[in-house]
Design goal:
Order of helices and strands: HHHHHHHHHHH
Strand content: under 5%
Shape: globular
Radius of gyration: 27 Å
Oligomer: single chain
Number of helices: 11
Number of strands: 0
């Protein structure tokens, strides 16, 4: 009969009582998540900037014509909230941004799928999309005015194109970067085209698609404000340009603050959408 010996370090930790006088292991406290840390850091930077801007305006480091005090801008913003004209401008910009995001995301996603399914089509059109990605599409706004007129439709069309380009490129890159073994697995399991697309391809390209959606939202907002700033007759961008031309700096900065708040809201909503789309990916 042989006797086996097991090293003390190989025993499960649950069965090894702590030796007398041996220090107990200290559990690490769970820290903040990356999202919470990023949100707190952003909030802290915003507070620091507002305090600095308030103090600088009060002691006269710069003129009120350059940057009014945040308290003055806040008072102007509170006054604007009671004016119907402000809500009309905000509603028009909100509708244009919403339609641009939805249409741009859907159009770009469909184009990315086509480039993936038909590589020849992707090789033909991808260089043009990359070129358009670097060209400010606001240059084509006069053409849209001639074709459509000075209305919300022309703004939505160009902002949609701006949002669709990064969505299409990122979707195509994500699908083309998918490991070939995934498609072999789908064929071996005799998955239908619909199952292959929604259960394998889209989840595999999820991070790229979400990145494209982020860029689509950003470009939709930038495109809408830029088009309104040029020659539109209503909207937040138009109102900022009009107030700049009549030297009403306080109200102009209040409208700029509204655009910044709108971008923060879109970023927060996009974070929620990203968690929903990528849910279970790393499980």
């Amino acid at each position: 009969m042989t006797t086996s010996y097991v090293a003390e370090d190989d025993l499960p930790t649950e069965t090894m009582p702590p030796k007398p006088g041996q220090p107990q292991p200290v559990r690490r406290k769970r820290g903040l998540s990356n999202g919470a840390l990023s949100a707190l850091s952003t909030l802290g930077l915003i507070v620091i900037f507002l305090v600095f801007a308030e103090i600088g305006a009060q002691i006269g480091l710069w003129s009120d014509h350059i940057l009014p005090a945040p308290s003055v801008i806040l008072g102007e913003l509170v006054r604007l909230l009671g004016e119907p004209q402000f809500w009309d401008d905000a509603a028009r910009t909100g509708v244009e941004v919403a339609f641009s995001i939805v249409f741009g995301a859907l159009l770009g996603f469909a184009a990315g799928l086509i480039f993936w399914k038909l590589p020849a089509v992707g090789r033909i059109f991808e260089p043009y999309l990359v070129s358009f990605y670097a060209v400010p599409l606001v240059l084509f706004y006069p053409v849209m005015i001639v074709l459509v007129g000075i209305n919300a439709t022309s703004v939505i069309i160009l902002a949609t194109v701006m949002a669709a380009i990064p969505m299409a490129l990122n979707t195509a890159v994500g699908l083309n970067s998918m490991p070939p073994v995934y498609m072999k697995l789908a064929r071996s399991l005799k998955a239908s085209p619909r199952q292959t697309l929604f259960a394998i391809a889209i989840p595999a390209a999820g991070p790229y698609i979400v990145a494209g959606l982020r860029l689509a939202v950003v470009y939709a907002l930038i495109g809408t404000i830029a088009m309104e700033f040029t020659t539109a007759q209503a909207g937040l961008g138009y109102r900022i340009r009009y107030l700049y031309e009549i030297f009403n700096n306080n109200e102009m900065y209040a409208y700029i603050a509204v655009v910044l708040v709108l971008s923060c809201i879109l970023t927060a909503l996009l974070t929620v959408v990203e968690r929903i789309l990528l849910r279970g990916r790393n499980r």
